Amino acid sequence: MPDLTAIQLALRSRLLTLSVCTTGTMSLAATTTGYTRLTGSFITDGFHPGMEVVPAGFGTNTPRLIKQVAALTLTTYETLTAEGSAGGRSLSVSLPAARAWENVAFERPSNLHPFAEEEFVPGPGFSPGLIPHGIEEDQGFYLVKLYGPENVGLQGITVPADAIRDLYPAGDSSLLTGLRIGANPQKPYRSALRPDGKGWSVVVVTIPWRFTSVN
Amino acid sequence: MGAFAQGVRRWTLDVKATEKAVFLRSSQMAFDSVVTGSRITGAPGQPVGQYGPGYHPGRVGGFLRASWQFVVEAARALIMTKTVYAPAIEDGTREGRQLTLRSTVGGFHSVKLTVQGWQRIVEAAIAEVRGA
Asked: Do B116 and A139 touch (CB under 8 A)?
């Protein structure tokens, strides 16, 4: 019989490795309105309005919501404390800091920062018959719902959603013995961006999985 | 036309008729899976609004479930709804939070589960058609 909890936790572990974009370690400064750099480009690095950026190496490393992106300037909705340019810093976008895991108390961010919600949906299992040591197959999907603020642009939600989808290549069997991503003929996919009300938009990433075991 | 050619033609017609029967039965099973649920796909079907004294008085539930349509065209079947909140019910989200299922029937994700179970549906339809 499949250990559904182990399957869910394996899928969740992969989700936690999400990396959408980053400046890499470099010299960065903070202004009252955001972050600046002297070389390279925030645009080329893949930052977009609506993403939650996580600073590292600054005096304050609280995640911030991106308002505007230019080559050398990243504007945030929040007011920051100015810090002069210094090396050894980075700005990155990964899985939002607010995460709604199943059956864990969760409050939506009051500041409309993006958040992720997981849902594990097991489907029916199939067996070719009551054959001793026969192969059983179970399938289902792992949903990641990515919420973000409305009216701040498309890529703030869709680019991270695509990155989540791409974390789970069809046919990947490295997560857990017996577990394979995708269920013939399906591969992971994401929904359209959908207004969800009360200032939120949502994209749902569906990761079909198949688990084979010996009965 | 010789006996062999007649046999080949009869066989071809049989195959085409079987193919059409499997197509129609598979499509109908997929529609049923989305709307009322299926033990083949595990889809719960569409939930139905709960109405009664003190809860949406004067209204009748089942609008979403009744809105799903099944249309067969020449070489394809369409399973569709124009109900604006159908995607929210499918994904189980509204206003940035997970919906709570109050309906005593149906649930969320029926379209996704039906799509995922399509191969099983076709296998079940073939078994039915062959057994008929």
From this structure: yes
CA distance B125 to B66: 24
A137-165 tens-digit pLDDT:
899 999 999 999 999 999 999 999 999 99
What does the pLDDT look like over A49-63, one tens digit per residue? 999 999 999 999 999
- Going by C-alpha positions, the residue among B60, B53, B54, B46 that lies closest to residue B103 is B46
Instruction: Residue B100: list chain A partners with CB under 8 A.
Output: none
Q: Which of B91, B95, B98 has its CB closest to that of A200?
A: B95
Q: The CATH number of the domain where A147 resides is what?
A: 3.30.2000.20
Angle (CA) B57-B61-B63 rounded to 5° is 130
Whether A195 and chain B come into contact, CB under 8 Å, resolves to: no
Q: Which residue in A has a C-alpha nearest to residue B99's C-alpha? A: A196
Task: Supply the range of the domain harboring residue B33.
Answer: 8-131
Nearest CB partner across the interface for A194, out of B40, B87, B113: B87
Range of the domain at A110: 4-18+96-214
> Which of A42, A62, A94 is the endpoint of a domain?
A94
ipTM: 0.83
Of A94, A112, A131, at which residue does a domain stop?
A94
The pTM assigned to this predicted structure is 0.90
